[in-house]
## 1
Amino acid sequence: MPDGNQLIACHECDLLQHEVALPEGGVARCRRCGGLLYRSHPRGLERALAYTLGALVLFVISNTFPIVGLEVNGDLIQATLLGTVSMLYRDGMWLVAALLLFTTVLAPLVHLLAMLYVLLPLQFGALPRSPELVVRVLTEVKHWGMVEVFVLGVLVSLVKLADLAKIVPGVALWSFGGLMILFTAASIAFDPRQIWLKMEHAS
Ligand SMILES: [Zn+2]
């Protein structure tokens, strides 16, 4: 929390200096070498909220619609993410099922909801309750979301399967791609420094 005592080191010359609150669109530079310390993106939190809401919509689509269909002997077999999890579980691969469920469904969902929990009240000038706890949850959970790894894994398997069966990309495959992009954009725009600053103004 930048309370005026928070120190930041310059990336260029390693000079330690106190963090200061910036106006929107402002830039903090090193007092010795002029190197960029940090910046406050204009309307950063509004963008974070928009990306988060968009990502939540794509999250629902990604988990509802089939990721891929395989045409084998004229039959179309479709697979959704949750369907795959329950199939793995039934086949006795419960550890793989749990990992897949945690890294591609639960962790991203908690991450998105936690960002929404902080951003939505701030948008309307209100304070979220126990923000420190939520930010701690966010820091823990963000290492576990592996949507990118999952999408990459699906794409590699599809290329390998292409010889064996006709592949029909499902709606969820495209929305997973979009989710990956929006998720990254939301995480980048979710700037804790700007959030604490906005909370000080709202309180
Ligand atoms: Zn410097």
Note: The two ends are 14 Å apart (CA to CA).
## 2
Amino acid sequence: MTYNKIPADTISNEIADLFALAAKSGKEWGSSAHDKAKAALKDALIEAQGGRCVYCQRLIKKEIGHSEIDHILPKLQSGDQDKSNSNERANRRSTAGYPAFTFFPKNLALTCKRCNQRKGTFDARKRRDAPASTTYILEEDYYEWVHPHIQNYSDHIEMVEGFIFHAKEASPNGDNVITICGLSTIGAVERAAAELRIKNAENYAKALAMMLPHLDDYGWPYIIEAVQEHFKDIPSDEIAFTASIFEGGLKRGELTGR
Ligand SMILES: [Zn+2]
């Protein structure tokens, strides 16, 4: 799978207008006055992001509790302000904040709850020792981060089946996302979730079917092995044969992997 940046036309004129009004209102980000703007943005982003979190690429739902709108440049001042000009990774949770971009749609992306919480107030502006621009910069060089509106994820981060992440060619942008969002432990979290889904399935065919939306992430060998592990009395060639029927259905478009 290749993950690209969010297409520029994702932010429609309607969304831009809603957010311009929201910014003008003077009401804080959490106010319910912005619900309509946020809902329109979430609808557009979930589609543009292929239903995935921009940082860990796991499938997310747009409902509250399943996904969150991340401020790529953090909105509020936070932490020790003496460290807010430091370029050291360890000091980057201390930030002067970028309140001017709280309602700037291209400073916003949809993430899973886990990534948003781990990123927190992390400030990924590359040269924090220089004054911040008063206009929003949409150039790769301004960030030490995979900015989802500017950079293609797959140019910086390689993901192998089963959620193993590597920074491509030692990309510092990719490395920051992997480290700050704690992506090295996602694989274990997701495997435990997959095994729970399989365990709770009524039978092995339903377990296989339940894993179809996650096929791109795990691949058949892992899925078949995990299903076999739980439905031990079913011959392994029967499980593999049923998987091949599903695979054929996917290829003919009768089933959907999503
Ligand atoms: Zn995530």
Note: Residues 201-251 form one domain.
